[in-house]
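Annotated sample (chain length 270).
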Amino acid sequence: MFVLVSLIISMLILLTIFYFSRQRYTGLERKFDILVSLRQILLLSRQHRAMTHQALTSHHFDLHQAKLEDNYDAMMACSNELIANAQFENKPMYRILQLKLKALHKEWDQRSVARNQVLHGKTIRHCMFLMDEIAIAWLIESGREDISDEYHMNWQQVLDSMEVLTQLRISIQDSNDAEGMLRVKYYCDKMRRKLNQLSIISPLSVASPLSSKAMHTLTEINACDDLTISNEDLYQLATDISLVISQVYDQMLSDMTENLYQPLPKIAFS
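Output written by the structure step:
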């Protein structure tokens, strides 16, 4: 009788351990899948911005319509998958993201280039903030203070860089007057210093040809008395810098998930 009771207790203990282990694995898997979906939405949002920007500046809307529709369909499919995978209490915030994605595509051809850049920039930042929320929750559950401290310190650098980039992008539309030109030069110099700080977090991302070219352009703008670069090229510079910041943050996430679960799949930034 004693042996039977002992066996039953042992089995109950094993089942309990298995249950909580399975629950933990399911939670990790869900967080991982949500991060993967948000990364894909971030990439698709960047592609949407590039295509709409090109169409608005060239005024050849029809040439980009088919690709834009494919891009939008992919964003909606990825967004629906994200909502389906999220826990019930988290679904509303991903539905808000989906509304922002729909707003990007709605009547995009009626916007100015500056307005288009601002709307896409806000959505891209919103997506990164959602990724940050997942990362923070994951780090809290893991109890890894060493990884958590490093992540928080690096995230602040990324956040500061995004804020400076936003100010740079806003200042471009006023670059034709003297005061606006000074603002552009000021934020270009500030952006150059922020990229130097990001190079400590992810040396390979900031040492890429795209980043090196952006750094060179920022240095030249600050060194010249007058702006010799067009607004179109300034917007492209801002887009290139946005990609570099995204790559740095993506490397941060990849390092974190590799330490806590498994590496994120490779993604082709564009």
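Annotation: Residues 143-270 form a domain with the Four Helix Bundle (Hemerythrin (Met), subunit A) fold (CATH 1.20.120).
Annotation: Confidence is low (pLDDT under 50) at residues 18-25.
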